[in-house]
Amino acid sequence: MSYAVMGSKNGQLMVESVGAGQGPADQACLAFQTQWGATWVPGNLMMSPLHLTFMPSRASSGAGMLKLKTSDITGVELGNGMRTKPIGLRIGGHVLRFKCAGADKLAQQLAQAANDARRRGGSPVSVRH
């Protein structure tokens, strides 16, 4: 399996708490929320077969970045918008909202990456509109 970046997209990310989650992905989301608060954070989202990484534009030397396993994604939702559409990624007790241009294609890629990572177990992930 390749660890190369499959896709990269500039946009804005906001992390929302929607329930109680205790896993490593939830801890990473909480750390991101502590650093950036409940605001839209501009940056770059990179996807590999194993990981989803968000690097904020204002971060220096990796401080404040968010790195999660693609297998932790349990749902992908596509919102409405004219130029940019928000993509909702359900991960444990959090929803990551990422606004970008070309969200339709990215949502499909994220769902496929999550399915590929979860292929050995778990339920499939599809894009909900």
Can you offer a commentary on this structure?
The chain has 129 residues and is an alpha+beta fold. It has a single domain (7-122), classed as Roll (PH-domain like), CATH 2.30.29. The protein contains two helices and eight strands. The protein has helices at residues 24-36, 103-118; strands at residues 7-17, 41-47, 51-56, 66-69, 75-78, 85-91, 94-100, 127-128. An eight-stranded mixed β-sheet has the order 4-3-2-1-7-6-5-8. Strand 6 and strand 7 form a beta hairpin. The longest helix has 16 residues, at 103-118. It is globular and about 30 Å long. The termini are far apart. The mean pLDDT is 84.
Helix content: 10-25%
Per CATH, the class reads Mainly Beta
Q: Which CATH architecture would you pick?
A: Roll
Order of helices and strands: EHEEEEEEHE
> What do we call the CATH homologous superfamily?
Pleckstrin-homology domain (PH domain)/Phosphotyrosine-binding domain (PTB)
CATH domain topology: PH-domain like
Number of helix segments?
Answer: 2
Number of domains: 1
**DSSP strand (E) fraction?**
35-45%
What is the end-to-end distance? 30 Å
Mean pLDDT: 84
Structural class: alpha+beta
Q: Supply Rg.
A: 13 Å
Shape: globular
Biggest sheet statistics: 8 strands, mixed
| Uncertain residue ranges | none
Query: Strand order across the biggest sheet?
Result: 4-3-2-1-7-6-5-8
In total, the number of strands is 8
